[in-house]
Design a protein that fits this description.
By secondary structure, the chain is an alpha+beta fold. The protein is 32% helix and 26% strand. The protein has three domains: 5-60, Arc Repressor Mutant, subunit A (Orthogonal Bundle), CATH 1.10.10; 69-277, Bira Bifunctional Protein, Domain 2 (BirA Bifunctional Protein, domain 2); 281-327, Roll (SH3 type barrels), CATH 2.30.30.100. Helix 2 (22-29) crosses helix 3, helix 7 runs antiparallel to helix 10 (245-261) and helix 7 (156-170) packs across helix 12 (272-278).
């Protein structure tokens, strides 16, 4: 479905507490009752559960906090505000990364941030689909211009992982781990992922779009499409404290923007020790798939450049700059 401004207006009203009748929505929003009914069906297609009670009207089964440009900016610190050039929130988009990649072709700039409530074609690494139910999680991308080519930002995805862990720790989540090269983990389950796409000159100016998907609440219907162990904040936060998507979004930017802005100066060495402290793969038996080859052994960490180190059964140490890593439990 195509998400229109009228869809967003109706959903904004439904996001408020209490029941809302179709006649009330029709009058207040100047839309026919038939249109309201059609929109309610559309919301169900997006994975939003609607409760209907005769004589009362409709409400969302689960409280929905829509992202707000104003609320996010209110929670940004002065440093982040100075690094932010633009902040957009899209109700629906093909992909936040794809959108910013197109923007950067004609209007390259640092600090351009794009959030979405849902992605039609959300992307993970290696072309995998990133499941993106409406209003449930965080899907964000931000752009940055680097002066000194691709080599100068080697290890950026690992540093971004450190920034995300810092934000989640500030948010009150403990025991967050990092799986090389760019996955956010909690107790052996994937909580989020980073996707960085770079264009430009290999030894000159280059543009980076840094994407982050973070699971806050994954509806059961959508979760059935995920092929690996996963978790979300709803499962981690067992107490009944209401957390804010807008506050967490700002917390992420407060940590991401300074790390990315200073990366060419500080480089990955500045984050190496901290990343190693979050490494949740060290000591694990794994199979690493690189091209058509499979390598079995034990992960012994990363080297000073952020490359993955595998100790094979023969004792040989192999180094990987990229590849697909999967766990094989002892």
């Amino acid at each position: 479905m195509t998400f229109t401004n009228n869809h967003y207006t109706v959903l904004t009203r439904l996001a408020k507490d209490g029941f809302h009748s179709s006649s009330e929505l029709s009058v207040d929003l100047n839309l026919s009752r038939a249109t309201i009914w059609k929109y309610l069906q559309n919301f169900s297609e997006l994975g939003l559960e609607i409760i209907a009670v005769r004589g009362k009207g409709y409400r969302l089964k689960r409280k929905l906090e829509l992202l707000s440009n104003l609320q996010i900016k209110e929670n940004l610190n002065h440093k982040s505000l100075s690094l932010l050039s633009k902040l957009e929130i899209h109700p629906q988009i093909a992909s936040t990364n794809s959108y910013l990649l197109e923007v950067m072709k004609t209007n390259p700039q640092s600090g351009y941030v794009c959030f979405a409530e849902t992605q039609i074609n959300g992307r993970g690494r290696r072309g995998r689909q990133w499941i993106s139910p409406f209003g449930a999680n965080i899907y964000l991308s931000l752009s940055w211009l680097f002066k000194n080519g691709f080599a100068s930002i080697s290890g950026l995805s690992l540093a971004v992982g450190v920034a995300v862990v810092r934000a989640l720790t500030d948010f009150g989540i403990d025991n967050i781990g990092l799986k090389w090269p760019n996955d956010i983990y909690w107790q052996d389950k994937k909580l989020g992922g980073v996707l960085i796409e770079i264009s430009g000159e290999s030894s000159g100016k280059c543009n980076a779009v840094i994407g982050l998907g973070l699971n806050l609440y994954m509806p059961e219907k959508e979760s059935s499409r995920i092929s690996q162990p996963w978790t979300d904040l709803d499962k981690i936060i067992t107490h009944q404290i209401r957390y804010s998507r807008n506050y967490l979004s700002a917390l992420l930017l407060n940590n991401l923007l300074p790390v990315i802005a200073s990366f060419e100066t500080k480089t990955f060495m500045h984050y190496l020790s901290e990343w190693r402290g979050y490494d949740c793969m060290r000591g694990c038996e794994v199979s690493i798939y690189s091209g058509q080859h499979q390598f079995d052994g034990v992960i012994i960490g990363i080297d000073d450049s952020g490359l993955l180190l595998l100790k094979e059964i023969t004792g040989t140490i192999k180094t990987f700059a990229s590849g697909e890593v999967s766990f094989r439990k002892k």
